[in-house]
Design a protein that fits this description.
This protein has 311 residues and is an alpha/beta fold. Helices cover 32% and strands 15% of the residues. It has a domain of 102 residues: HUPs (Rossmann fold, 3-Layer(aba) Sandwich). The mean pLDDT is 94.
Length: 311
């Protein structure tokens, strides 16, 4: 008798700087989701962007998540998976879904088209170009995916509307950059399938790209995992807490909080606890349910001494 497929969750942070409260919350929620289901839980350090990611940041991320009290069944570096990304590009090229693009970011911005995710939407300037005779490997330009038109309707367990026509609302994405780096959308889709991930729990800032990723999965003949997009921690000015904006790093937090105190604070912010008393991730497991997690984003501020929650 065939055993049912075991659920498999993952956390896949970018190694572009130190973990901050938003990183730790995302890791905690992904971990709680997987462990509450008895699922496998993998940590995948997304480090394929050579402009932003450094080996020392990867090691620091491991240390931060372990300090918080999270564990995982397997860990990997995305940069070790180059062969599988190239095989995926070959498969897309066979379907004539790839084309070279010489447009710069400034060129795209000048077109003035906004995408569903808030970025600038590619206007399709180079869409009619063909790959060089030797294929995408011989192109000195960026390589884009020629998206088919049509509405895609992924399901989100949190109830978000993910329906979209990526061709119209996002525009053709870059899959391989001019410098040879593999882009996020291709890497995440290929890795999730290769690692048999069945559950993707992530912040709602990534919700707008889900339909695009489903299009990629279908083009590559890959399964679509379950998706759940959760609330974000925001800065007072309304932007997502991020390394780019100088969010407080975990080592500075460690100087003011124990791991249990910070976990308790995060749990209270999202509704898993009525008070912010100390708690380990494992202590939160007993009462964990997504119905208890707030849907609205939380605005927080670092005073230099403590984290504060703002109305």
């Amino acid at each position: 008798m065939t055993e049912p497929l075991r659920e498999h969750g993952r956390f896949a942070p970018t190694t572009s700087g130190p973990a901050h409260p938003g990183t730790l919350l995302a890791g905690l929620l992904a971990w709680l989701d997987a462990r509450s289901l008895g699922a496998r839980f993998s940590l995948r350090l997304e480090d394929v962007d050579p402009d932003r990611c450094r080996p020392e940041h990867a090691q620091d991320m491991l240390a931060a998540l372990a300090w918080l009290g999270l564990d995982w069944d397997a860990a990997s570096l995305q940069s070790d998976h180059q062969t599988r990304f190239e095989a995926a590009l070959d498969r897309l090229a066979e379907q004539e879904l790839l084309y070279p693009c010489a447009c710069s970011r400034a060129d795209v911005q000048r077109a003035g088209l906004r995408a569903a995710d808030g970025a600038w939407r590619y206007p399709g300037t180079c869409r009619a170009r063909a790959l060089p005779r030797g294929g995408w490997r011989e192109s000195g330009d960026a390589v884009r995916l020629r998206l088919p038109p049509g509405r895609v309707e992924p399901r989100d367990e949190a109830g978000l509307d993910l329906a979209q026509d990526p061709c119209l609302e996002l525009g053709d994405p870059v899959l391989r950059r001019r410098d040879g780096a593999i882009a996020y959308h291709l890497a995440v889709v290929v890795d999730d399938a290769a690692q048999a991930v069945t559950r993707v729990v992530r912040g709602r800032d990534l919700a707008a790209c889900t339909a695009l990723q489903v299009v990629l999965q279908r083009a590559l003949g890959l399964p679509t995992p379950s998706y759940r997009h959760h609330l974000l921690l925001l800065e007072p000015r309304g932007e997502k807490l991020a390394k780019l904006h100088g969010a407080v790093g975990w080592r500075e937090l460690r100087g003011r909080y124990s791991a249990e105190a910070l976990t308790g604070w995060l749990a209270q912010r999202v509704g898993l606890r009525e008070t912010g008393g100390p708690a380990s991730p494992r202590e939160l497991l007993a009462g964990f349910a997504w119905e208890r997690v707030r849907g609205e984003d939380a605005v927080v501020r670092w005073t230099g001494e403590a984290l504060e929650s703002l109305p």
